[in-house]
Automatic annotation (TrEMBL), chains A, B, C, D, E, F:
Gene3D superfamilies named among the record's database cross-references: 3.40.50.12500
Species assigned in the record: Vibrio algivorus
InterPro entries, A to Z: Asp/Glu/hydantoin_racemase, Hydantoin_racemase-like, Iso_Racemase_Enz_sf
PANTHER family according to UniProt: PROTEIN DCG1
Protein name per its UniProtKB record: Asp/Glu racemase
Family as reported in the entry's similarity comment: Belongs to the HyuE racemase family.
Length: 246, 246, 246, 246, 246, 246
C-alpha cells in the first residue's frame, strides 16, 4: 500500500523527520510518500497558520489521490483540514492528534499532552472534545518551545520537554504522554525509556492505523457528510479547484 | 464607525444582498463596507469550500485592518476563519452564526435553525457546541436548496423555506427560527411576519453587536489566544503573509 | 425607545448608580427609566434575598408594561425573576448576567467573573450553565465584599477588587473580566484601563442588547413557555395579580 | 418527629389531599403538619406562579422553624423556593420532585415524568439537570390538564393520565413513572396496580426521606451556601424579614 | 421486613461491623440478615477484586431471594454486581455508594468522598457519573489506607481519616463528607461530631432507603433491563446457575 | 507475536468462528491463540452473564500471561472484565467494542450499532460513554436475536440483520455500522458489500490494534490504576488467586 504522509508546513527538515519516523514502523509492503505543500507557513503555531496550511494541504491531498495512494496522514497535531480532506479523498485520512489519542486511550486510563506553545492549547482542547477523548486527558502542558526549534532537538531542549512530562506525571497523575507536535516524533522512544510510561507519537500511530484500515478493507464512508463535494466555480488562486474531477 | 462586512464566497450578488441587509439596520454613524475575497468558491456548502474560503477571507480581514475598520463581520453561517481572523485583527470579529445564536437565546427558550443543505448540518452542530447554545437548539432543518439558488429567492423557494420553518414549529416546538445562510437575509422580515415567532438573520444581528461593542469600548482581548501571531516565513501563494506588519 | 432599568433591591443609591451607567451608553433616542421595587431586601446576597426580590420585581415589570416600555433590564447579577418576567411582559427582558456573558464570549476565549460574596458563586455557576457559557468561564472569584459597600467604592475597595481581577488574570489565565454585581458598574472603565483586558459590566451591556433587539424588531417569543400565564386567583399580598389583564 | 408538609399554593383541597397521602406512609412517631401559605396563587403552573409562591412559602418555612419541626416538605413538583428554604431552616427541606427522582432512580434504569401542562416541562427539565437525573429520564409527558382539575380526579381524568403513562411505557420505553404534580398523589397506588411498573409520588417519597434523615441524624449542612443568611433591612410587605432571628 | 445486608468481601469482622451499623438504625420491624460470600477476596481494592467479588455476591443475592428477603444491600463502596443483582432479585437492591450519594445530595450543595486507596478513585468517579452525582462531588480523597486496616480503627488511623476530611473541607470547600468504604461505618457519628458537617455512611443510608421502598411498596421495575434473565447453560463452577428458577 | 483471543462465553462454535475471523486479518508473524473459559455462561446477554463471564475470563487472561502472549482480545461486545484484565496482565488488553468504535470513528462522522437483544443496549450505551464515542453513535438497534442463534447464521437471519442495518442507514442516517456481537464476525464483509458503507467487526479490529501496539512498543501503563493488584487472600473457588505471582 502507498501512504501519503503530509507535513502541512513547508519546513522540509520536518518533512524528513516525519518520513523517517513513518518508515521506522511501516510494514514491509507499505510505501511511505512524504511530502509538504508548496504554499503556506513554515510552522503551524496559531489559527492563522492553521487556516492557511489547511488550504494548501488540500492540494497535496488531491495530488496523493491522483497518484492513487491508499491513505493520507496529516502530520501536524492540530489535524488541519482533516474533515475537508475526507471529503475530497477516497482513501482514508488520519490526523496525528486523533491517531495518538486512540492509542493513548488503549494503554492508559488518563493521559497528558505535552506540546509546544501554550497558545496552541485551545486547539488541542478542541480536538479532544471533537474526537471524544476529553475525559481521558488530565492535562495539556506547553513547554513553550517554538515548532522550528524542534527541527533538531538539542540535549537541553530534550531535558526541557522531559521535565514537562515529569510534571504531568507527578502533578497531574497521567499514565501516558501524548506528544503534541510531529516535530517530537524522534524523541518518543527515548522519552518512553526514561519516563517508564507509554509515550505516544501520532506519526507512527497514524501509519499503523492506516495499515490496519487497509488490511480491514475500511475506507471513509462517502455516504453523507464526507461524500464528494459539489462541483462549483472557484476564483483566483483556487481556480484549479473548479476543474477537479470534471 | 466603519464595519467590514465580508461575504466569504465570491458571489457578488450575495455580497450586495448582505450589504443591503446590513445597511438597513445600521446606526446613522455606521459606515458599511461590503466586500468579498478575490479567491475561493462561489458558495460555501462543504468543508472543502470552508477551508478554501477561510484562507481567502484572511486577506480581506487584513485589508479591512489596513483601512482601520472598527469591526469585521464574517457573513457566512459557518463563521469560517473566525478564530484566525481574531488573531490578525485588532478590531472585533463576529460570525453571523454566533451573532444569530446570541439573539435567538435572548428571545426564546428553544430555537431551530433552518439551513440550506443537510451536509452543512454538522458544521452548525459544531458551532452550537463551540458557542454554548446546543442546549437551546431543538432542531437543525435543511431545506435542501443550494446556496446560489438564494441569490434571488423565488416565491416557490420562499414557500419551501417557510414550510421547513413551519415543521420546526409544529414538530420540534421551537419558539424562534435562526436562518442558516446569509443568503436568506432578505426574507427574515417576511418570514417573521408570516410565522408570528421571531426569525433571526445573523447579518443584521452582527451589525448591532459590533455597534454595541464599539459603543461599549470593547475589543477582542489580545492577551492570550487571540494575541498577534508570531511573524514567520510563508511560501508561495501565501508569501505576502511573511511581511505583514513587518 | 423606553427602557425599564430595574434595580431589584431597595437601595436607592444603587438605583442611581445603575441609571447613570445605563444613560452613559444609551443611544440618543433611548429613554432610561430607572426604578426599584417598594418591597424586598436592600441588597441581594443569598437565595432568600433572591426569592423575595424576584416576587417584588414582578410588580415593577408589570408597571413598566403598563407604561409601554420597549424593554426591561433586571440589574442584579443573579438575573432574579427573569423567566417569570418574560412571561408577563410583551417587551423583551434581559438580566445583566446574561448580557455580560454574551459580550464576554464575543471578545475573549475564556473569561472570569469577579463578584462580591463567595456564597453567591453557586448562583453565578447556575446562570453560566443555564445560558451555555460555563465552558468559557475559567473562574468565579469573590472579593468577599458586601453588596452595600459598593454604594460608594472607596479607593481601598477598588484596590481589593482590582487585586482579585489580577489574580484571575495571572492564576486562571482569563482574557476578560465580567463584573459580578451591578454595584461595580461605575468602575468598569477604570478597571479596563488599568488591567488592559476587556472588563464587562452587565448594565451597559444590557442597554445595548435591548436597543439592538428594538432596532431588529425582535421580542420575546410568546409562542410557548413565555406565553401569557393563565389567569387565576391569587390570595393575600399577591391578590392584585388576580385581576391583571382582566 | 414533626414534619411541616407545605402545599405552596393556596388551594386547601390540595393541602388536604397532600396531608392524607403523607399520613398514609408516616411512621407511628411522625406528626404530619400540613399547611399552605396565606398569600399567592391557587395553583402553580408557570414561572410567575412559582416566583410568587416561593416568596410566600418562605413565611411558612419560618413558621415551621418557629414550631421546631424536624423537616419541611415542599409539596409542589417544581420544588419552589427550595434552596432559599434550606438557608433559613435548620431542619432539612425536601422538594417532592427531588424526592420522587431519588426513588425512581433506585427502582428503574429509565423513568418518565407524567405532568399537567406542557408549559411546565422546562421547569421539570431544569430540576432533572440540577439534581443529576436527566440521563435517567427518557421523557416528560404532559396530559394537558390544569392543576386545579386534579382537586378531585374524575374517572375520565384518571383514564387520560393513565393513557399518557401507557404512551410513556410503549413509546418511550420507561420502566417507572414519576407523577409530576402533588395533586396526583392519590392515584399513584391505583396507577401502579394497573400499569404494573413502579409509579412514584413525591409526597410520600419525601416523607420517607425526611424520616430517614431524622433517624440518621442528618441535617442540611450550614457550613457554606445554606448557612444562615446575613441580617439586613427589608421593605414593605417583606419588612418582617428584617427582624427574623434578631 | 427482612434485609439481606451483604458484605461482598470475605472478611467476617467487616461483616460484623456492617451488621452492627445496619441494626443501629433499623426500624423495630426490620430484621437484618448480615452475610458475606464463601468465595472471593478478603477485601475489595481493585477491579480484579471487584470482578471476582461480584460473581461470588450473586450467589448470596440468590440465597437471600430464596429466603424471601424484602431488600438487599451491597455493602461495598464500589456497588459491585449491583445491576446483575437487580436482574436476578425480585426484592430491591441498593449499593452503599448510591445510598450515600442520595443523602449527601439532600443535605449539601457540594460533597467530598474520603476513601481508602487512590487506585479506587476511578471506581468512585464511575459511580458518580452513573448515578448522576458527579456535579455535586468536589473531590475524592484517598487516605491511602488498606481496607483490612479498617477492621479495627485505631486512634491514629481515625486521626488520619479525619485529617483527610479536614483537607476536603478547607481546600475543596465541601459541605458534607461521604465515607468511601463500609469499613468506616463505625466512625461516621464521631467524625460528624468532630467535623460539624454531615458525614454520611452508605450502610445506614441503604437501610433507610430499603425500609422506605418497602413502606412505599416500590420494587425494582422488572419491565425491561432488570427483567428476569434468560435461562441458559452455565459450565463449571457456575453450573448451578443453569438450574436456577427451573 | 502471540495474541490470546478470548471468547468469554463457553460456546466453542463461537470460539472457532472468532478464531477464523482473527486469523483472516492477522499479519504473517502473528500467532492467534483462540480460547474460552471452562466456567460460565454459554452466551452473554445480560448483566448476570457478564458478571459471571468476567470472573471466569480472568483465569484465561492469567493463563495467557503465563504463556507470555503479547496481547489479549476480549471477544464479546460488552468488553467484560476488561479493566480487571488490564490490572493482571502485562500485555495489552482490548475489548472488541472499544476496537470497533475506534475504527468506526476513523471512517465515519456518525455510526450505528446493530446488536442482538435490546436488553443489551444499556451495556453498549455504557461503553460508548466510557470510551468517549457516544456523540458519534446515532443509534443502537437490536435485531432481537439470541446470541446462540448466531452460531451459524442462516439466510433468513442474515436478512433480518441486514434489514436492521438498512433501517439504521435510512432512519438514523448513520454512515457506518458497528456489529454488536462477536458472533456476527463472519458476515461483516458480506454486509459491507451489500450495504455500501463501512461495516466494522470488533474481532478483526482488535487484532489490528494489538499488532499496531506491538509494533509501536506500547503496553498498558502500569503506573497507576492498572498497576499490579495487591496480593491478598481469596477464599473458595477463587482461592487460586491468593497465590498468583507469589
Amino acid at each position: 500500500m502507498k501512504i501519503n504522509v503530509i507535513n502541512p508546513n513547508t519546513c522540509l527538515a520536518m518533512t524528513d523527520k516525519i518520513a523517517t519516523s513513518a518508515l521506522s514502523v511501516a510494514n514491509p509492503g507499505t510505501e511511505i510518500m512524504a511530502c509538504s505543500p508548496l504554499h503556506g507557513p513554515e510552522s503551524i503555531e496559531c489559527m492563522r497558520d492553521e487556516v492557511l496550511a489547511s488550504a494548501a494541504l488540500l492540494d497535496v491531498i488531491a495530488e496523493g489521490e491522483a497518484r492513487q495512494v491508499d491513505g493520507h496522514i496529516i502530520a501536524c497535531f492540530g489535524d488541519p483540514g482533516c474533515d475537508a480532506a475526507k471529503e475530497i479523498a477516497l482513501a482514508p485520512v488520519i490526523g496525528i492528534a486523533q491517531a495518538a489519542f486512540h492509542f493513548a486511550s488503549l494503554v492508559s486510563h488518563r493521559f497528558s499532552i505535552v506540546t509546544t506553545l501554550s497558545r496552541t492549547i485551545p486547539m488541542a482542547e478542541h480536538l479532544l472534545a471533537k474526537y471524544g477523548f476529553a475525559h481521558q486527558c488530565v492535562s495539556i502542558r506547553a513547554a513553550e518551545v517554538e515548532v522550528l526549534s524542534l527541527e533538531t532537538i538539542s540535549d537541553s531542549l530534550f531535558i526541557d520537554l522531559k521535565q514537562e512530562c515529569l510534571k504531568a506525571i507527578e502533578e497531574d497523575h497521567c499514565e501516558a504522554i501524548v506528544l503534541g507536535c510531529a516535530g517530537m516524533s524522534d524523541i518518543a522512544e527515548r522519552l518512553q525509556l526514561e519516563l517508564s510510561i507509554p509515550v505516544i507519537d501520532g506519526v507512527v500511530a497514524a501509519v499503523k492505523l492506516l495499515e490496519s484500515l487497509y488490511c480491514l478493507n475500511l475506507k471513509t464512508s462517502k455516504s453523507f457528510i464526507y461524500s464528494e463535494p459539489p462541483q462549483k466555480h472557484f476564483s483566483g488562486r483556487y481556480a484549479h479547484w473548479s476543474k477537479l474531477r470534471e
